Amino acid sequence: MKTILLSITALFIGVAAYAQNCVADFSITNVGNSFTFNFTGNQPTNASIYWNIAGQNYTGTTVTATIPGPSMDFVSCQVTLIDSVNNLFCSDSKLDTLFIPGSTNNYCMADFDLLQDSTSINDYYLINQSTYSSNLQYVMWDFGDGTATNDPYPSHNYANVGTYVISLFIYTDSCWSIATDTLEVTSKSTGTWVYVIDEASLATQAVGNFVELKLYPNPSKGIDMNLSFSAQVASDIQVSIYSVTGSSVHNQTLTSKIGRNDLRLPTHQLSKGMYFVEITDFKGNKETLRFVVE
């Protein structure tokens, strides 16, 4: 029994040493594409420090590296002590994102609007309004709760109350930029949803055969909606409904007549949320309208 107790005691001593001795942390400074990485954590005697910076391996407390851009990459630092003679073992690591600039002769500016739904206080919409002078290569949304995605138009649910910093990162073939905004989540029972919307899908286009195009009631409270317009010629029109993520949820062909038309859309079967209805006339002209189902 004494031998077992001594073994357990030694085990807990080893765990305590592991937790207290090795702490990985670092700072990053740069001038253009020249980066300096300084170890600022706790390095026990005889411990080694290992770096992986944009796929390249380094050692030491201070590392300098020139990294071509623009791009987004990663830097990791690990401090490790292996002293089998004195029975001292510990290890810790840290990972961070590395944003590498490109040419200063080109322009890009990440930007987005954070809008609350006028009918549902737990729904928000993000509209990407970034501008850039060269080809867009990469988009990343970080929702501030440990979730990130490179989907340009994602949706995300916050299950817990709190304050979250939403970040949009873009880089082109010549530069990169970041924009941030803060979202206060106050409801836990139902959760809070954020939908990223393509700004182009909100634009209203002129359609030759449609006059006074209206969609009502908007928002819809679980009932069918009416599509009202005046047509200059009788023809078939294609009506498509999309979710905020771009998924098609309904398609139908309707026949219009000359003059006023009132057509019914089967929106009663849709779940709560925001949708887009796209109407295409016989010439291929399209118009997009937004509506909300409560």
TrEMBL record:
SUPFAM superfamilies (alphabetical): PKD domain
Signal peptide start and end residues: 1-19
Domain PKD: 141-168
Gene3D superfamilies noted in UniProt: Immunoglobulins (2.60.40.10)
Pfam families: PKD_4, Por_Secre_tail
Keywords: Signal
InterPro entries in the record: Ig-like_fold (IPR013783), PKD_dom (IPR000601), PKD_dom_sf (IPR035986), Secre_tail (IPR026444)
Protein name: Por secretion system C-terminal sorting domain-containing protein
Record organism: Lishizhenia tianjinensis
